[in-house]
């Protein structure tokens, strides 16, 4: 009970600390591509429970309808869809997505109890429904903003390895392990930020 309380206090602290950045990002989105600021999508969480996940909008209006047309360009293995330089990105959206800053609104999902700071990334409803039975064991814990699998270049490796990694993490999840993932993620995000700056220059 005390640990849970302290955890939520820490998450609230992160929201307060990142609020100025979230405000700047919101203004940037409005200026570059108008409203809405947030993208909301149904994702699958713990025990296969659906919830609405928040992200800063990174793509042009109507991007969902264009996904089928771009399916042949999909760079991800398995039922997921991913294109590194997705043509649907807005100018600001590409930077936000590649640096992970578009995920900041999910701190509210953590505060609500739908997600955790560390955990398997929640899949959209359509993609989650296509998982094999054994792959759905990743849903025994809350999905997270940060996934250990991201550090291993998940989009360039087989989808089955991604799922096995999530299931292994679910079995060994602990405060100590999560702290280690956080410390690894800091230089990783810094590397992504510098890389994206160089690409845009």
TrEMBL record:
GO MF terms here are: phosphotransferase activity, for other substituted phosphate groups
The organism's place on the tree of life at top rank: Bacteria
Report whether Transmembrane shows up as a keyword of the record. yes
Which segments cross the bilayer?
A: 6-39
Q: Where is the Bacterial sugar transferase domain?
A: 9-186
Q: Which InterPro entries match?
A: Bact_transf
Tell me which stretches of the chain form a coiled coil: none
Q: Do the record's keywords include Transmembrane?
A: yes
Q: Which UniProt keywords apply?
A: Membrane, Transferase, Transmembrane, Transmembrane helix
Query: Cross-referenced Pfam families, in alphabetical order?
Result: Bac_transf
Assigned protein family: Belongs to the bacterial sugar transferase family.
Can you name this protein? Undecaprenyl-phosphate galactose phosphotransferase
Give the organism the record lists. Answer: Candidatus Gottesmanbacteria bacterium GW2011_GWA2_44_17
């Amino acid at each position: 009970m005390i640990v849970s309380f302290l955890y939520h206090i820490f998450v609230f602290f992160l929201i307060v600390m990142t609020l100025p950045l979230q405000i700047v990002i919101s203004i940037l989105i409005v200026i570059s591509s108008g409203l809405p600021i947030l993208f909301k999508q149904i994702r699958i969480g713990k025990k296969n429970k659906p919830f609405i996940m928040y992200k800063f909008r990174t793509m042009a209006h109507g991007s969902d309808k264009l996904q089928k047309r771009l399916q042949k360009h999909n760079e991800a293995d398995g039922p997921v869809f991913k294109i590194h330089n997705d043509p649907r990105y807005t100018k600001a959206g590409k930077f936000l997505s590649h640096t992970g800053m578009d995920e900041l609104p999910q701190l509210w999902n953590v505060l609500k109890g739908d997600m955790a700071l560390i955990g398997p990334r929640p899949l959209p409803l359509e993609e989650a429904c296509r998982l094999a039975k054994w792959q759905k064991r990743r849903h025994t814990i809350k999905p997270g903003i940060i996934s250990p699998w991201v550090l291993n270049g998940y989009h360039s490796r087989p989808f089955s390895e991604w799922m096995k990694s999530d299931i292994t993490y679910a079995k060994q999840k602990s405060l100590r392990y999560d702290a280690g993932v956080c410390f690894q993620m800091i230089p990783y995000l810094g590397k992504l930020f510098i890389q994206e700056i160089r690409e845009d220059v």
